[in-house]
Design brief:
Blueprint (H helix, E strand, L loop, with lengths): L5 E5 L4 H11 L4 E7 L11 E8 L2 E7 L12 E6 L2 H12 L3 E2 L4 E3 L5 E6 L1 H6 L5 H9 L8 H9 L2
Parallel strand pairs: 1-4, 5-8
Antiparallel strand pairs: 2-3, 3-4, 6-7, 7-8
Pfam families: 3-dmu-9_3-mt
Protein name: Putative 3-demethylubiquinone-9 3-methyltransferase (Glyoxalase superfamily)
InterPro entries: 3_dmu_93_MTrfase (IPR009725), Glyas_Bleomycin-R_OHBP_Dase (IPR029068), PhnB-like (IPR028973)
């Protein structure tokens, strides 16, 4: 069996814009292939039907949904654990550009997809029963702002 692949449905023909934007934000990312709709697609003929791309080496497929209304929501998010504050700040700025900042390190990009941009250390902290409550208390205070690694670490220490 091959690995699971994530398919992202994009409305209104904005498929190339979305993929170009995401690939520009993440290192080691690229467009692998692009497939147009054929003549049999009527009004969609010639438009991009699907784009296979990689973000940091992980495969994704974007599907051009045309004018159908399958909308992304927060039930599924793309989680990005970051090692540095610069990574958090750069990705937060790029992904919220035209999008919307949310609570607890979440955001929605301009295409409606939910992202979690957070310090990679949070995963370890949440797995440690002694510090997890302090880590959770910190990220619950975030409302529309990116994570601060320094503030998270101070909260975990009990400062």
């Amino acid at each position: 069996m091959r690995p699971v692949n994530v398919n992202l449905w994009i409305n209104d023909g904005r498929i190339q814009e979305a993929v170009d934007h995401w690939v520009s934000l993440f290192p080691d990312s690229r467009i692998v292939s692009s497939t147009p709709y054929g003549e049999e697609a009527g009004d969609l003929a010639g438009q991009t039907m699907a784009v296979v791309f990689e973000l940091q080496g992980q495969p994704y497929t974007a599907i051009n949904g045309g004018d159908t209304r399958f909308e992304p929501n927060e039930a599924v998010s793309l989680a990005v654990p970051c090692d540095t504050q610069d990574e958090i700040d750069r990705l937060w700025a790029g992904l919220t550009d035209g999008g919307k900042a949310g609570p607890c390190g979440w955001l929605s990009d301009r295409f409606g997809f939910a992202w979690q941009v957070y310090p990679a250390a949070l995963d370890d902290h949440l797995g440690d029963p002694e510090v997890a409550p302090r880590a959770v208390a910190y990220f619950m205070t975030l409302d529309g702002v990116p994570f601060s690694i320094a503030d998270l670490e101070a909260a975990v220490r009990g400062d």
